[in-house]
Write a structure and sequence with these properties.
- This protein is of the alpha/beta class and about 130 residues long.
- Helix content is about 40%, strand content about 15%.
- It has one domain: Rossmann fold (3-Layer(aba) Sandwich).
- Helix 6 links the parallel strand 3 and strand 4.
- The longest helix has 13 residues.
């Protein structure tokens, strides 16, 4: 929010995992009320995957790390933003173009990017 207020003519992007989005998605209400055209992308693999990779190795169970494949794009719309579901890589360019156009009008945008879970190398870190 501070970046959008400090640089009103800049494109402001927010990158979330689906787990982290649960902590701050309500900010879309604030973005909408203040006309802040930010663009948020949620990488949605329906899980706390970074937690699960070590938890499964150590405890042998993914309990508490599995999330529903939530329609975050619909949540953003309910909070006054515009939401896009991106579940086909062929649609990336079109969705990004639409998102940029909407954000330029002062409306916040959320792109719910459905992604697959990945196999992590032992000892690797992900971002």
């Amino acid at each position: 929010m501070a970046a959008a207020l400090a640089q009103p003519n800049a494109e402001v992007w927010l990158l979330y995992g689906d787990g982290a989005a649960g902590f701050s998605l309500m900010e879309f209400d604030t973005f909408a009320r203040h006309g802040l055209g930010v663009i948020a992308v949620i990488g949605n693999d329906a899980g706390w995957t970074q937690i699960a990779r070590d938890q499964v190795t150590i405890l042998g169970d993914d309990v508490g790390t599995v999330l529903a494949p939530t329609d975050y794009h619909t949540v953003a719309e309910g909070l006054g933003g515009t939401g896009f579901l991106l579940d086909d890589p062929a649609d990336v360019d079109g969705v990004l173009a639409e998102a940029k156009a909407v954000a330029a009008s002062g409306r916040p945008v959320l792109i719910n990017a459905r992604i697959g879970r990945t196999e992590f190398r032992r000892g690797s870190m992900s971002m």
